[in-house]
Design brief:
The protein has about 190 residues and is of the alpha/beta class. Helix content is about 55%, strand content about 15%. It is globular, with a radius of gyration of 16 Å. It starts with 6 loop residues before the first strand and ends with a helix. It binds P1-(adenosine-5'-P5-(uridine-5')pentaphosphate and magnesium ion (MG).
């Protein structure tokens, strides 16, 4: 990481848009390491770290965890992976996340995947996920949608203005979404 600039793609989209599902597909076909910021934060809660309670409370409220916490976890995971190509899933979620990541790591994303999906469909998916996530209840889901619209959409707009956004219609079945995703990777990797 120190001597070579890694290749980074941010994977953004609303709660339940399919970021994690599609990243799992991508890493089976392309040589990227998938880092979900949400998964790293949930692992941090489980590990019993001193930040755990704070993180848990913020996730329950659909709020964005302070960027220094998330960035530290991402940097550690990047280093430990030994890879130099990353899909960073669910981060950055606001302008402050974005600016802090670029300032701290000196990394700018090569591309941004944006999974665009209507709220009704995302809500349906989250309510039927059944994986025991503390934020998959209708009250928290509404808060997550609001934070996405107010704080995360501006990040996507920022990268759109830089020509980095690859927008995917995420409302289709998983396999059809992946067909669209593959196109983004294939010309670059061949
Ligand atoms: N599913 C997926 N694709 C489907 C399709 N095409 N058709 C039908 N069903 C589909 O998918 C969700 C569900 O839908 C699954 O059951 C799946 O099978 C099905 P998934 O791939 O998990 O969607 P994803 O977009 O990853 O949804 P997720 O709930 O993980 O998104 P969030 O962005 O809400 O969650 P995340 O884990 O990124 O963040 C959670 C919280 O952590 C945030 O609210 C915030 O409080 C905190 N956080 C931070 O503070 N900072 C960060 O940087 C990151 C997170
Ligand atoms: Mg996810």
């Amino acid at each position: 990481l120190a001597d070579k600039k890694p290749i980074v793609g941010f994977v953004l989209g609303g709660p339940g848009s399919g970021k994690g599902t599609q990243c799992a597909n991508i890493v089976q076909h392309f040589l990227y390491t998938h880092l979900s910021a949400g998964d790293l934060l949930r692992a941090e809660i489980k590990s019993g770290s001193e930040n755990g309670t704070m993180i848990q409370n913020m996730i329950k409220e659909g709020k964005i965890v302070p960027s220094e916490v998330t960035i530290k976890l991402l940097q550690k995971a990047m280093l430990e992976s030994g890879n130099d190509k990353f899909l960073i899933d669910g981060f950055p979620r606001n302008e402050e996340n974005r600016a802090a990541f670029e300032a701290v790591t000196k990394i700018e994303p090569d591309f941004v995947l944006f999974f665009n999906c209507p709220e009704e469909e995302m809500e349906r998916r989250l309510l039927s996920r059944n994986q025991g996530r503390e934020d998959d209840n209708i009250e928290t889901i509404r808060k997550r949608f609001k934070v996405f619209l107010e704080s995360s959409i501006p990040v996507i707009e920022y990268y759109k203005a830089k020509g980095k956004v690859r927008e995917i219609d995420a409302a289709k079945p998983i396999e059809e979404v992946f067909e669209e995703v593959k196109v983004v990777f294939t010309p670059k990797d061949e």
